[in-house]
Amino acid sequence: MIFKRNRPDLFTTPVFSDQDHLYMQIISGNGDTTNTIATYIKDSSKIEYPMPQNLANEKIYQLRLVKKNNTTGQISEFYKYYFRTSQFNTFHDKFNTLFTTNVAMWTFPLRGNVEDWIGSFSVPAGDEQMDYYESKIGTIIHFDFVTKNNAWFNSHYLASLYALVDSGKFTLHRSKEPYGIPPVNDSYFNTDTFFNHVILNMSQITNNEAPRNIEDGYLSINFVGTKIMDDDWYDMRNQISNYVEPDKRTAIENAILSETFYLPSPGDYYFNMYYQIPGTDIITFNTQVCFNYVINK
Fold first, then answer.
1. Distance CA 251, CA 120 (A)
2. How far apart are CA 23 and CA 109, in angstroms?
3. How many domains in the chain?
4. What is the chain's percent helix, strand, coil content, to nearest 5?
5. Beta-strand relationship, 283-293 and 267-276
6. How many Cα atoms sit within 13 Å of 198 on the Cβ side?
């Protein structure tokens, strides 16, 4: 559990005494409670605790962060939320049910410019799809675009543009993090657009229900790098135009100056996909997936 901002005051005196201990409680629909010792890590602003290994599949649980005074027995609640366990034991098993068909991708321009690049692939009806919290803004599941041997990236001078940055001749105005240079990191499942994901509530906990509202057979991936590449292209053009004398420009620099940014073209696009535990460097699953981009008319 990661704090949006560090709160060491919650775990020191006078709020937290020597007699207080921190626990994470996992409560099932019938009231069974599992207590695990939790630890506050000040340097990384997070709570660490062991997740019980005996939770049932496809069930809703309540999670409570509490402190208990060992002298008085008093329990005070810091935070609680609800979560639903998967029907699968591992993400690898879930992945194998999602990526069973060829992938069709298309560009999605807004306001005359490319804002993002959305791809969609068919998911068999009835299979478990991505939960809102595991796919929201790539917090757990990440896609990194593979530029090697990609025909689109290596044509239209994109690879040459970033080679100029790598050589030190030019410096982009944006920071390297979090997307990288070139911006290949942290694409994510775009669940808000195509699915009405069910947010868990008390009624579902009480009735021990775990519905997964599947409205259609598609799940989208948002490749944020396309918009950033577009911005980098214009950044570089402005630098070449303003700071490099015409008679001193290389052929590559003249090409970048005269060409326009091209949207992704039909073909195969590879992404390194990995499942990373938030707030850690722990990756529990990784693979490479191929999307075949076709133009939908």
1. 38
2. 48
3. 2
4. 25, 30, 45
5. antiparallel
6. 19
Domain, as residue range, for 283: 91-293
In angstroms, the CA 86 to CA 44 distance is: 28
Say yes or no: 54 and 189 in one domain. no
Q: 40 and 11 in contact (C-beta within 8 Å)?
A: yes
Print pLDDT tens along the chain (297 aa).
777 777 888 888 888 888 999 999 999 888 899 999 999 888 878 888 988 888 988 888 889 999 999 899 999 999 888 888 888 888 888 877 766 554 545 444 333 344 444 444 444 444 676 666 666 554 678 888 999 999 989 988 899 999 999 999 999 999 998 889 999 987 766 554 444 445 666 677 677 666 565 555 455 666 778 888 989 999 999 999 999 999 999 999 999 999 888 777 778 888 888 888 776 788 888 988 877 776 654
* Residue 17 located in a structural domain: yes
Instruction: Determine which helix (DSSP H) or strand (DSSP E) holds 252, and give its type and residue range.
Output: helix 251-258
Q: Which of 133, 99, 137, 102 has its CA nearest to residue 116?
A: 137
